[in-house]
Amino acid sequence: MLTKKHLIGAITIMLAVSVAVYLAKSGVRRGHSLPPADLASLRAGEAVMVIRTTYACPSLAAMNRLHEDAVAHDEIGFANHFSREHCEKIKGVAGPFRILGFSDGPAGVRYVGVAGEPPQPERWIFGAPGVFSLRKP
Predict the structure, then answer these.
(1) Are strands 94-104 and 88-90 parallel, antiparallel or unpaired?
(2) What is the pLDDT of residues 24-65, one digit of tens each?
(3) pLDDT per residue over 80-128, tens digit each?
(4) What would you measure as the largest C-alpha separation in the chain, in angstroms?
(5) Cα of 109 vs its chain's centroid, Å
(6) How far apart are CA 14 and CA 46, in angstroms?
(7) How many other β-carbons are positioned within 10 Å of the β-carbon of residue 112?
């Protein structure tokens, strides 16, 4: 015979299982499953994943303008260039991307030219420490 305690226990277990299934399906993880790669050690042709929030623009000139606005704390200019140049904010894990090349910007900033797989148009991503991870084979 079921008592009130048994019923409460069964409901609690069902709720716990439901939450676990929901979190597993939504892709929520406890941390990065991909370790960050050293930006200086990356080479053209390597496959990488973006594992931290960053910015991407379709051209290197647009990326330079975006960086100048950010350094100058020009929020209006940043927003205008961001929308006009079709730049985007990459959040969380994205990719895979194939590295096409590198460009060193002002004050030691490094931009990474990438194309998505399957082949997509070239984009320039703001390369900061911890942004990229080598794609697992």
Answers:
(1) unpaired
(2) 776 655 555 778 898 889 999 999 999 999 989 999 888 888
(3) 888 888 889 888 788 899 999 999 877 778 899 999 877 788 999 988 8
(4) 75
(5) 18
(6) 45
(7) 26
